[in-house]
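Hey,
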Amino acid sequence: MKPDRLLDLFCELARIESPSRREALMAKRCKAELEGLGFTVRFDDSAERTGSDTGNLIAFRAGSAAGAVALCGHMDTVRPCKGIEPVVEDGVIRSAGGGVPSSLPTIRLAWPPSSRVFAASSKQGRRFRMCMSS
């Protein structure tokens, strides 16, 4: 993977406004990225129960190695989440405009076999754990 591509992807995702319960745009972009990497992507039915505009994103990619890797992250952004503008200074990514989602880099950290779960409304307490049974 090209380091600049990862940085560009992170910055693109960080610019997406995604407060808790309004992560649909982030979910759509994450879905596209994961499908492009060969993952099967689905959304659970938690949106109605949490009041979110999207369910939890669950992605799976089969592999040939023994074992499995599972990563969990979130799609919402710490407020203020509007107008985020990532700035790279001396190799460090900072935000000139607000909070930056901390789990976005997990999209690329593991390779098959692996699963990804990106929770909607994770800043709203235990909603993720309550809704993962579906």
